[in-house]
Amino acid sequence: MDYSNLTNMKRENRNYINLNPLQTAGKLTEAAKKALIEFGDGYAVCDFCDGVLDDIEKPPVKTFTREILPKFLGCDTVRITNGAREGMFMIMHALTNPKDTVLIDDNAHYSCILAAERCKLNVVKVPNNKCPVDAIDVTLYEPYIKKHKPKLILLTYPEGNYGNLPDAKKLGTIAKKYNVPYLLNCAYSIGRMPVNMKELGADFVVASGHKSMSASGPIGLIGMDKKYAGIVLKKSKDYPNKVIECLGCTSRGATITTMMASFPEVEKRVKNWDSELKKCLWFADELEKLTFVLIGQKPHRHDLMYFRTDILYDISKKHKRRGYFLYRELKKRGIIGIKPGHTKSFKLSAYGIAKEDLEKVISAFKEIIDENKKLIA
User: Are 188 and 211 in contact (CB under 8 A)?
Assistant: First the structure.
């Protein structure tokens, strides 16, 4: 393979309308692109480090992590991580001992389970309401807390398949009632929509910079209540300025600087969440007119959406390219983000995509269906 061609491949994809929920809110801002070039060398920010990553003042990592992000998230303390999963592991590892129990929603990301396994914990899942909605009723946590006495409870907000948003605030009340630490996995919410940790009653939040904060990855963050900072951010005896759970330092170089560079636009778009969600729901309504079926909570409250698309699946059974026809037809029309081979159902996001581009997507689906209707007549 000619690796020198990778840059050209990437430039080609930038011109497409991208519906991938993993990427719609992770697209770099223009300021972040400049930071990526300036700080692309692996340890660029370490030129100005006296031993503590979060105390670097040039670039202003200290101000960003110690002042700006805590205010943005409604928490006391923030630290940068290498991703949401690393944040979950840090919390579990610091707060528990092997064989302790953690209570996790049935919609949790696999990395949450792996973090618990790595800590040798007993994982108990709070069930969802099964197909087709798979939503979590947070009141079910209470009997599980009584029965299992967990050292930590976790809720995914929202879950990454259907985009269901559980009642995080109600679970916060339950957690306080039983005095059990409460972690919110906000990989698909922080950076897209308003999230205030204290208002939701959580003790911890984790976020993904590359999924939802327009940063080059991998990068994430962890926010926490001050009462847990001394536990999770405990310093090494031999290296007293290094946090043990972070292994001393986490994200350094292009990742942290792109997150900082994108933050003004991220903060602005979060304040604009209501109109963004309204646009996404309009898009969903238009797709349902094509016989697609939106699966999940209704009214839907997040940009991540999952559709059942029986008409496309029926076409795929007769089409010469089988299930891959849809990917090829969309790409011909300048649209990517739906995985190759998926026709029976798929998830997508309209986050940050202009309405006129979404109208092109709607027209593309309609054209594809009309051109292939003869196969299922």
Answer: yes
pLDDT digits (tens, 9 = 90+) for 234-292: 999 999 999 999 998 888 789 999 999 999 999 999 999 999 999 999 999 999 999 99
Phi, psi of 237 (to 5 degrees): -70, -40
Given this model, what pLDDT does residue 370 score? Answer: 96
Question: Residue 207 CA to chain centroid, in angstroms?
Answer: 7
Domains and CATH numbers, the chain: 3-19+272-370 (3.90.1150.10), 30-269 (3.40.640.10)
φ, ψ dihedrals at 317, nearest 5° = -70, -20
Q: Helix H segments across the chain?
A: 6-14, 30-38, 61-63, 69-73, 84-95, 110-118, 141-148, 168-178, 197-200, 209-212, 226-232, 254-271, 273-288, 310-318, 325-332, 355-372
Mean predicted lDDT score pLDDT of the chain: 93
Q: Tell me: the pLDDT tens digits for 98-144?
A: 999 999 999 999 999 999 999 999 999 999 988 768 899 999 999 99
Q: What is the DSSP string of 39-103?
A: T-STTGGGGG-SS-GGG--SS-HHHIIIIIHHHHHT-SEEEEESSHHHHHHHHHHHH--TT-EEE
How much is the pTM? Answer: 0.93
